[in-house]
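Structure (tokenized):
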């Protein structure tokens, strides 16, 4: 069933990667084509008209050959459900038809026409009780919107399972809602429990209060991570009853965002993070020697540079037995990369990927307009 006002064409415009990345300019590896409008394979799916799509660094890496993806690119979006399967129930039609949505990008095999029993995406194996939301992100048979075997958002129309959809509040603009996916990815750092600004252990709490955190990268994702970590820092260091900084706790150091562009760093200057130019991490103009003021000083280092060389700096900043959080996906490897520091310093390396869209929408709705400038 379609929306009463929707006319669904049989074809649509889409940005498509048709072959392996061979061109020097990554944009030349994709083309704007006329392709068939996608059809829904089962009543579990919805057809969505894309209202706005976001460009992620992962999209640029895919154009350079990452994942070997072929198809319609893109995974950040806000859209409107314009059609449901003919066999969709009346209840589903009333709830979802003509509704604005964002969506989770991972499609578990439980959404297939003849679902296998992987035990992960339906959580029948109970992994979610041990690993935070493993069912959402890690079905072994998954496809991924615009990244792995599922056409993405750089098109007029797209399909997703209804269980992947999240409603967008009426008062939220498309310009804001489209940032739900990258902000959710930032929220994943906290969802995984990788950062703690308020230790429960009394000895550690009295000594430093909480983790010393460095964030690398002032692109969209890095700014989102900084915003989320800054808010968590303020929450953990404020007295819950009076809303002021608690005098009875040892206040941890604020998280620090390191980036290359002062005007970008200024976007999150009042969010609870400190900001520094990444050049201040080094003792020399050639950026070969990490300063003693920063070398091995941080409990948690989050790499959101989108640059394979960001890992090298992250390892240098992280203290022995600290945690490296990798948010970057890159087609190229790190030239001259040596893993010895990870082994010698016994570093914990953790990947961090997709997060809670519903939490991101909640945060976007709560942010005052002035705070939204960092997303534009």
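Design, position by position:
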């Amino acid at each position: 069933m379609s929306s009463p006002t929707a006319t669904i064409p049989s074809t649509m415009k889409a940005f498509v990667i048709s072959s392996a990345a061979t061109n020097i300019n990554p944009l030349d590896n994709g083309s704007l084509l006329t392709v068939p409008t996608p059809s829904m394979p089962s009543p579990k799916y919805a057809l969505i008209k894309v209202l706005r799509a976001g460009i992620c660094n992962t999209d640029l890496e895919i154009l350079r050959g990452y994942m070997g993806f072929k198809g319609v690119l893109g995974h950040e979006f806000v859209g409107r459900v314009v059609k449901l399967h003919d066999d969709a129930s009346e209840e589903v039609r009333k709830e979802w038809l003509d509704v604005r949505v964002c969506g989770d990008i991972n499609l578990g095999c439980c959404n297939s026409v003849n679902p296998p029993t992987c035990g992960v995406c339906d959580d029948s194996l109970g992994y979610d009780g041990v690993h935070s939301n493993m069912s959402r992100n890690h079905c072994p048979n998954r496809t991924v919107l615009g990244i792995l075997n599922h056409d993405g958002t750089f098109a007029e129309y797209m399909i997703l399972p209804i269980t992947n959809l999240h409603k967008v509040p009426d008062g939220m603009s498309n310009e804001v809602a489209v940032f739900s996916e990258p902000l959710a990815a930032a929220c994943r750092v906290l969802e995984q429990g990788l950062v703690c600004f308020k230790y429960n252990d009394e000895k550690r709490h009295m000594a430093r209060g909480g983790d010393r955190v460095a964030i690398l990268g002032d692109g969209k994702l890095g700014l989102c991570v900084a915003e989320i970590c800054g808010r968590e820092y303020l929450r953990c260091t404020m007295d819950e009853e009076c809303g002021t900084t608690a005098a009875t706790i040892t206040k941890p150091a604020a998280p620090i965002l390191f980036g290359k562009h002062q005007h970008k760093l200024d976007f999150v200057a009042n969010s609870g993070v400190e900001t520094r130019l990444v050049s201040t991490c080094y003792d020399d103009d050639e950026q070969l020697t990490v300063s003693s003021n920063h070398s091995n000083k941080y409990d948690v280092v989050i790499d959101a540079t989108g640059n394979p060389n960001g890992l090298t700096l992250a390892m240098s900043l992280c203290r022995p037995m600290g945690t490296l959080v990798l948010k970057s996906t890159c087609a190229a490897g790190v030239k001259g990369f040596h893993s010895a520091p990870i082994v010698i310093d016994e570093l914990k390396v953790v990947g961090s990927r997709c997060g809670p869209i519903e939490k991101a929408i909640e945060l976007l709705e709560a942010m005052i307009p002035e705070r939204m400038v960092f997303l534009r």
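Reviewer-requested clarification: The first strand starts at residue 11 and ends at 17. Residues 118 and 140 are 7 Å apart (CA to CA).
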